[in-house]
Amino acid sequence: MSNQKVALITGANRGLGFETAKQLGQQGVTVIIAARTTDKAQEAAEKLKQDGVDAYGIQLDVTNKAHYQPAVDYITDKFGKLDILVNNAGVGPQDWTIGELKVSTTTTEELEYVFNTNLFSLVALTRELLPLIKKSDAGRIVNLSSILGSLTLHSQPDSPIATSKTLSYDASKAALNVFTIHLAAELKDTNIKVNSVHPGWVKTDMGTDAAPMEITDGAKTSVQLALLGADGPTGRFIHLGEELPW
C-alpha cells in the first residue's frame, strides 16, 4: 500500500469542493473528485491534472445510495485505503432568503430535502467508507458544517448570526455537529480524527456574491483539518484555526 495520501471530496466539481481538492492536491495528496455525474467529476479532475495534481473523477451523488458501493470498490481496487474524507456536498433550502425568519412556516418537504443531503446521506456515506479510512495510518474526516449550526451563538441575541435563522439549514448543520462529536468519541482510541468545519461565508453559488470571503480562503479550514498531525484536535468545530462554540 502506498504512503501517498488519498482524499475523497464530495461535491467537488465546483466551488469549495473543487478548491479544497485543488489545495490538497497542491500539497501532494491524491484527490478523488466526487460529483453527481461522471462527466462533471472527470472534467474537474482533468482541470486539476493540468495544474499537476494527481486527480481522479468518480460519479458519487451522495443522495443516491446506488453510487456508494461502486465508489467503495473503486477506492479499494485503486488505492486500498482512504486517508481523508471531506464531506463537502451540501444544500440549502430551494427558496432561501438570507435573514428571512420563517421558522413556523418551514415545510416538512423543505426539512426532508435539506436533511437528506446535509445529514442522512452524509452519515450513510461515511459509514460505508469507514472501513477504508480505518486502513489509513492517519484517517481524517472533515464535515462541512456552518456557524449557522451553532446553538450557542443562535441563543445569544447579540451574536453575529442572531438575525439569520433558517430552520432547515441551521438544524441540519447542528445535527451534523452532533454526528461529528459522536463519531469522534467512538473513534477516540484510533488514528482517525473527526472535525466540523465552518468555512466562512464564501462567494459560492450558495453563499452568493454578497459573501465577504473568496473561495480560496473558504477552503483553507477544510485543508488544515484534512492534514492535521497526530497532536491535532478531534471532535471540534473549527474556523481558520479558531474553535467555535457548539
UniProtKB/TrEMBL annotation:
It holds the Pfam family adh_short. Keywords: NADP, Oxidoreductase. It comes from the Bacteria. GO terms for molecular function: oxidoreductase activity, acting on the CH-OH group of donors, NAD or NADP as acceptor. InterPro entries: CBR1-like, NAD(P)-bd_dom_sf, SDR_fam. CDD domains: carb_red_PTCR-like_SDR_c. Belongs to the short-chain dehydrogenases/reductases (SDR) family. This is SDR family oxidoreductase. It comes from Mucilaginibacter pallidiroseus. The lineage of its organism: Bacteria, Pseudomonadati, Bacteroidota, Sphingobacteriia, Sphingobacteriales.
